[in-house]
Amino acid sequence: MATTKHLKLLRHWKKMRMGVKKMKTRGKKFQRKKKKKSKNKKKKEVPEQTDPPSISVSDLFPSGEFPEGEIQQYKDENLWRTTSEEKRELERLEKPLYNSVRRAAEVHRQVRKYIKGILKPGMFMTDICETLENTIRKLISENGLQAGIAFPTGCSLNWVAAHWTPNAGDKTVLQYDDVMKLDFGTHIDGYIVDCAFTVAFNPMFDPLLEASREATNTGIKESGIDVRLCDVGAAIQEVMESYEVEINGKVYQGKGYVREDLECSHYTKDFEVGHIPLRLPRAKQLLATINKNFSTLAFCRRYLDRLGETKYLMALKNLCDAGIVQPLPPLCDVKGSYVSQFEHTILLRPTCKEVISRGDDY
């Protein structure tokens, strides 16, 4: 039989249970509201690139972290670098620099993917270059000398190996039987990603392209810290000479001896030049434009045209004659021959090699 004391305890216990139930119910309601709220909240999506490309890669990667290139290990005596804690720490310190170069590399990949998709015989070379360069400007968020195009777009044809881009008024048209080297660069704060590939519509040039592609990959594989450049060159040459290319029934080996020829389009200010007095006022004015917009980055006549410079050829010659600006004429092989080129930029990190410009295409 329950005493008065027991009844009081029982009532108190029931009240406590009711309180706990209410607290649990409120907790469930709160959880339901919380879940409902998070369900309705939209996730922030990363935008996809448009076609044609128009979104800056900085907007495509809002975290500020850009894709890493292809990682290759060092060979033989440098293999110890992979596990060295000291070298890893050096890499951690250089991460901001690596990220800047990766941003430039991502721009390069996206631009060349777009250009490859639109290239066809019958296009004016000027249109190809200007489309490519304007796409770089959008994707890299061009900003003076802090971000932009690293050098003029090389679109050298056939026996011309490098350093050719159309000057104003050039009406050269890309043909079905042309072999075109598209060589262009991007930069962030002067750190340059230089990367090139070859375009040929006629399949008879496929072995030529394959030879230069394999030679480039061999050079990358052999490269490393403290490796002699002559050894890298020898490995590349061995691969090139192992190929024989048949064009129109005639068999060729790779040669690769070039000379300066044709009209100059590429120029660069001498990196080591000091103050040189100029008498021609127009040359002084042109030099100011070059310093402001290019510094020691390479430029071409089309870039001067775009900046509004006119009647500057005499002033440009004056700067070249004075040794302030260096002309970079096209590099040519024997007329009637064909030259192929593939090129990548390699980052020699303390622990490994990063082929910074590698993509799905090559």
From TrEMBL:
Domain of life: Eukaryota
Matching SUPFAM superfamilies: Creatinase/aminopeptidase (SSF55920)
Any GO molecular function: metalloaminopeptidase activity
Pfam families for the chain: Peptidase_M24
Regions of compositional bias (Basic residues) in chain numbering: 16-44
GO cellular component: cytoplasm
UniProt-listed Gene3D superfamilies: Creatinase/methionine aminopeptidase superfamily (3.90.230.10)
Listed CDD domains: MetAP2
Function as written in the Swiss-Prot or TrEMBL entry: Cotranslationally removes the N-terminal methionine from nascent proteins. The N-terminal methionine is often cleaved when the second residue in the primary sequence is small and uncharged (Met-Ala-, Cys, Gly, Pro, Ser, Thr, or Val).
Protein name (database record): Methionine aminopeptidase 2
Originating species: Juglans regia
Recorded name of the encoding gene: LOC109007005
